[in-house]
């Protein structure tokens, strides 16, 4: 009996509360102002403010609603058509109806909520009744912020059931930006594309911004801007080059990326930048051994070709620019490292050939290259050094071009290392796979020179080295 009584009592209380809330609908809810304007999201602290007899509560990222409206939203069932008419007749604000329909709880799925269409229709009806726009986009922007709302719209456009309403909201969002006087650069920052880094061109929000830029330019020809100008305002040349290379690999963004790259190259040409200047702008001068794997190198190579075509009297090469920034030794080392990586092996091999040709065309002697590669300071590491292999390739090319010049690999090595040191290097290098070929080559060169030498005290000294050094070396290693 007590249980039944308790249930009946609860029913009476709920009925009285509902009657009270319905009776005070008109008195307690005040419409929010300026629905036709976009309320850009700002950082707000929790605060309460007295407005007449009502106490309103505002939170960061949400719309201002009364505590009474929140209470009604909790206990009120889904709104019927009649209820919406009642609210319309009483002039209930779009923000309040948003809460009463529990749309403030829908999060990212708001456009697929059954009540969302009712709310949009209410916005249209309220606009007709009041004679001024009740902006749905203003409420949504206040609730979500420009970036999050744009993402919701983009996602909804991909779903057949929400595509139409999402397209409508997208147009309204752009119109709200125009009405607020937002420039293309302002919207770029509202969508946080200035923080997207290398992913800007592949971001779904980039398409939204691009559409707005076109609309803005059409409406404001005196303030017309370009895609490249906006990107260049927020990103340095090297970052822009990286994002272009990244976007070129994606089918849907490849076209845009190529247009940006073309504009960037024309911008450099217009500013009369040399290939070496652009090399530094792209920070390739500080990339070290990874320069050949740097995506920005592709952009630079494209500029190099364009520059050479436009300025035949100032024509330069990739190997010349690399050498100017890294030196002969640095370039040789990076090429050796790059030849071991499949993705850079081809370009490194071609550049090695170009390096040797550059030395030949500029009249470099083998002895000069030996010191330029710091092989005169290599010590016991001479033969295992990959730079020694580069050096021998150059001497071969040099002798092929200058067959009458009496200069050998052995004579250059002997200018810095005595016979004993060289023989020790040969014996040690022969046991290391990476230097075995160099050791055998050097052994052949050394023996050939010894056999060609006149029979003198030096000759007999060398003969002793040939026969006895292996024994000496083994004794030292034991």
Automatic annotation (TrEMBL):
- Location(s), subcellular: Host cell; Secreted
Q: Which InterPro entries match?
A: PexRD54_WY (IPR054463), RXLR (IPR031825)
Domain RxLR effector PexRD54 WY residue range list: 172-212, 264-303
Query: Which Gene Ontology cellular-component terms appear in the entry?
Result: extracellular region; host cell
The residue range of the signal peptide is 1-19
UniProt keywords (A-Z) are: Secreted, Signal, Virulence
Q: Per the similarity annotation, which family is this?
A: Belongs to the RxLR effector family.
> Protein name, please?
RxLR effector PexRD54 WY domain-containing protein
């Amino acid at each position: 009996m007590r249980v039944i009584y308790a249930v009946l009592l609860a029913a009476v209380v709920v009925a009285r509360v509902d009657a009270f809330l319905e009776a005070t609908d008109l008195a307690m809810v005040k419409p929010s102002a300026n629905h036709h304007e976009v309320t850009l999201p700002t950082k707000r602290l929790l605060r309460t403010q007295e407005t007449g007899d009502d106490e309103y509560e505002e939170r960061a990222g949400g719309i201002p609603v009364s505590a009474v409206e929140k209470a009604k939203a909790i206990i009120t069932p889904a709104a019927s058509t009649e209820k919406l008419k009642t609210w319309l007749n009483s002039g209930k604000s779009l923000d309040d109806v948003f809460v009463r329909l529990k749309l403030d709880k829908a999060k990212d799925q708001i456009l697929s909520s059954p009540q969302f269409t009712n709310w949009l229709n209410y916005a249209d009806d309220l606009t007709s009744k009041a004679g001024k726009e009740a902006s749905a986009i203003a409420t949504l922007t206040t609730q979500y912020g420009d970036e999050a709302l744009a993402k919701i719209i983009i996602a909804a456009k991909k779903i057949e059931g929400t595509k139409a309403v999402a397209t409508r909201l997208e147009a309204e969002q752009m119109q709200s930006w125009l009405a607020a006087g937002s420039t293309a650069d302002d919207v770029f920052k509202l969508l946080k594309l200035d923080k997207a880094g290398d992913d800007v061109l592949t971001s779904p929000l980039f398409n939204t911004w691009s559409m707005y830029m076109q609309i803005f330019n059409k409406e404001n020809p005196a303030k017309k801007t370009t895609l490249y100008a906006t990107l260049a305002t927020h990103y340095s040349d090297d970052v822009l080059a990286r994002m272009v290379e990244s976007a070129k690999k994606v089918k849907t963004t490849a076209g845009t990326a190529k247009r940006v790259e073309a504009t960037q190259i024309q911008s450099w040409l217009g500013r009369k930048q040399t290939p070496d200047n652009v090399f530094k702008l792209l920070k390739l001068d500080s990339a070290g051994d990874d320069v050949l794997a740097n995506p920005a190198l592709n952009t630079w190579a494209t500029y190099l070709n364009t520059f050479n075509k436009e300025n035949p009297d100032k024509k330069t090469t990739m190997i010349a620019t690399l050498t100017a920034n890294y030196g002969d030794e640095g370039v040789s080392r990076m090429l050796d490292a790059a030849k071991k990586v499949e993705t850079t092996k081809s370009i490194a091999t071609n550049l090695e050939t170009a390096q040797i040709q550059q030395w030949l065309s500029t009249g470099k002697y083998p002895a000069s290259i030996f010191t330029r590669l710091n092989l005169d300071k290599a010590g016991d590491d001479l033969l295992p050094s990959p730079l020694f292999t580069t050096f021998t390739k150059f001497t071969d090319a040099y002798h092929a071009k200058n067959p009458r010049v009496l200069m050998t690999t052995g004579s250059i090595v002997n200018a810095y290392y005595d016979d004993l040191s060289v023989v020790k290097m040969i014996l040690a290098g022969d046991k290391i796979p990476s230097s075995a070929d160099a050791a055998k080559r050097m052994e052949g060169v050394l023996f050939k020179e010894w056999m060609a030498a006149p029979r003198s005290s030096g000759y007999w000294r060398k003969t002793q080295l040939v026969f006895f050094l292996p024994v000496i070396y083994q004794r030292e290693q034991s």
